[in-house]
Amino acid sequence: MTISDKTRNILEWIFCIVIAFVLAILIKYFIGTPTIVSQVSMNPTLQPNQRLILNRWMRTIHEMPQRGEIVTFEAPTIRGYNALEEADLENPVAKYTNEPTNWWTKFTYYVLEIGKESYIKRVIGLPGEHVKIENGKVYINEQELQEDYLQEGVITEGGDYNYFTDIIVPENCIFVMGDNRSQSTDSRSFGCIPIEKVESKVWIRFWPLELWGKVQ
After folding, report:
1. What domains are there in the chain, each with its CATH number?
2. Cα torsion at 47, 130, 74, 50 (round to 10°)?
3. Average pLDDT score, the chain
């Protein structure tokens, strides 16, 4: 029995669609993908509804983010603590408690990113560094951090459930904060982000067109 030309054409189309779908997933996961800013925590550097291209190659090659870079990462399950006693300052690592357990849920969550929430923040502290927030300023290994990317008059505060303000960044983790310090839920409240939870580095803003260019 031979396959008719019509059936062959349908099969060829299905094959092409499957290949295109697989390639799109591979590019999105390993190389780069577009996204939309949805929160105000990075104002004025990044504002809601701006469109970005994320560089995911750094995750593929396990590149350590550098201080000052803007990255995206999987949002922690626990976003903050109600009392200082609940925060583990000896091991200040963000908590992830709802990890997928089988191959299908891992695929849909990590690869297709269905039901997955991500944050955009700036890298402040690197592994082994002493991060201290005091008198409205950030200190790295006792040296004041110069943050030219912040809007004039912005101060960095602890307190009010931001308990991780005088810590040593654990190995294979980073300390992150939003540029809009008073409106950002970040490492001050949930701790340092494990490198394996970092998804990408913000690369290019392509919308609005007048702001097209590399994001600093």
Report:
1. 31-214 (2.10.109.10)
2. 10
3. 93
Distance (Å, rounded) from C-alpha 41 to C-alpha 53? 18
Identify whether the C-beta of residue 208 lies closer than 8 Å to the C-beta of residue 49: no
The rounded radius of gyration (Å) of the Cα atoms in the chain is 21
In whole angstroms, what is the distance from residue 28 CA to residue 32 CA? 5
Q: Is the bond into 92 cis (omega within 30 degrees of 0)? A: no
Task: Answer for the pair 82, 133: CB distance below 8 angstroms, yes or no.
Answer: no
**Which residue, chain included where needed, has tokens 């006792």?**
142
Q: Looking at residue 53, what is its pLDDT?
A: 96
Strands (E), 28-115: 32-36, 51-55, 70-74
pTM of structure: 0.92
Residue for token digits 């701006």?
Answer: 50
Distance CA 178, CA 124 (A): 10
Smallest Cα–Cα separation from 77: which of 208, 197, 202? 197
Q: Which residues of 110-127 are buried (b: 16+ CB within 10 A; e: fewer)?
A: eeeeeeeebbbbbbbbbe
User: Beta strand 118-125 with 173-177: parallel, antiparallel or unpaired?
Assistant: antiparallel
